[in-house]
Structures are given as structure tokens and as C-alpha cells.
Amino acid sequence: MKVVIYPGSFDPITNGHLEIAKEALKTFDKVIILVADNPNKKARFTTEVRYQMAKEAVEGLEGIEVYYTHGLTVDFAKKIGTPYLLRGIRDGADMTYERQYAELTHQIDKSIKFIYIKAPEKYVTLSSTKIDEMARANKDISKLVPKSVVNEYKKR
Ligand code: ADP
User: Fold this and answer.
1) Nearest-atom index, ligand 1, CA of 15
2) How confident is the model at residue 144 (pLDDT cuts 50, 70, 90)?
3) Alpha helices in 13-146 (DSSP H)
4) Entry pTM
5) CATH of region 3-155
6) Shortest CA distance to 131 belongs to which of 102, 152, 109, 155?
7) Distance from the CA of 98 to the center of ligand 1, in angstroms?
8) Does residue 76's CB lie within 6 angstroms of at least one atom of ligand 1?
9) Domain spans of the chain?
10) Is residue 127 in contact with ligand 1, taking CB distance under 6 Å?
11) Cis amide linkage into residue 12, ω under 30° from 0
């Protein structure tokens, strides 16, 4: 069984993230969304809440699972037994960032193989930050994120 891990902050998960996971399912048997802590970003939602929102979002989507870790993604990959890490690319800024992320990861574990999927056109400008700004300004985010995220913002 070919498994790919899709690590990220998912703070919160968006339809852009979900599209990348669904696209990867055309090549992999299983996609594991791994809610991880990015030391360079201060999270808006706790790891547990980010995990819950993502988990609810993939309910009914066969082949996509959600896990979380407070540790390193490479350690999680080793535990699962796959070398494949999935990342989404929206623009040049993502490419620059992903190059650095890949280099850093390979310093820890050379066996990791990165799979990149281009963001679909309608989601190239979508980010978790944009969602957070829209939600705070009371704008409608329901077409850009799963219901679990809309509900979480309603609680705030
Ligand atoms: P990280 O903090 O690890 O960058 P993110 O949750 O911001 O985590 O993003 C996880 C991955 O998903 C990254 O590879 C990012 O480029 C990608 N991504 C984020 N938003 C989108 C989107 N709208 N379309 C496609 N890929 C995306």
C-alpha cells in the first residue's frame, strides 16, 4: 500500500488543503494529513483543535486520514513506514519556502521523498491566514473551508 503523509499547520484547514489531499489520492492509496507544529509560526488554534477540524473535514472521504504530532514529521514518517511527504505549491513564495523545508528535512533524513502538487487555480490565493482575517472581519468563509472550520469560528 502506497502511503503519503501531508504535513502542515492546517491552522485552520482549508478547501485548498483538501484539494491537494484528494488529488494525491489519484496516485497514493492513502493520504495521511498530519497536523504538526511549525516552530516558525505561532498557531491560532491548538494542535488538538486543528486536528479535530481536519478530522471532521475528511469524514466520508475514503483513503484520507488525519493524525497529529508534537514531534518531527520525519519521525512520524518512519513510524508509519513511508518516505513520501506531500506539499502543495501555490506560487513562487511557496516554492522558495518548500526548497528550504526540503533541504532542512533532508539534513535530518535523506530518504524522504517529496511529492508536490500544484494548487488548483481557484485556490491559489487561499491561505489559512486569509481565512482567519476574513473570519475576524465577519466575512463569509463557508465556500473556502469545511463546515468544521466555520463552526469553530462561530464558537469564538
Ligand atoms: P506549513 O506551516 O507547514 O506551511 P500550511 O498548513 O500552511 O503548513 O500548509 C501546508 C501545505 O499546504 C504547504 O505545502 C502549503 O504550501 C500547502 N497549501 C496551503 N494552502 C494551500 C492552497 N490553498 N492550495 C494548495 N496548497 C496549499
Assistant:
1) 23
2) very high
3) 15-24, 47-57, 73-80, 92-108, 128-136
4) 0.97
5) 3.40.50.620
6) 152
7) 10
8) no
9) 3-155
10) yes
11) yes
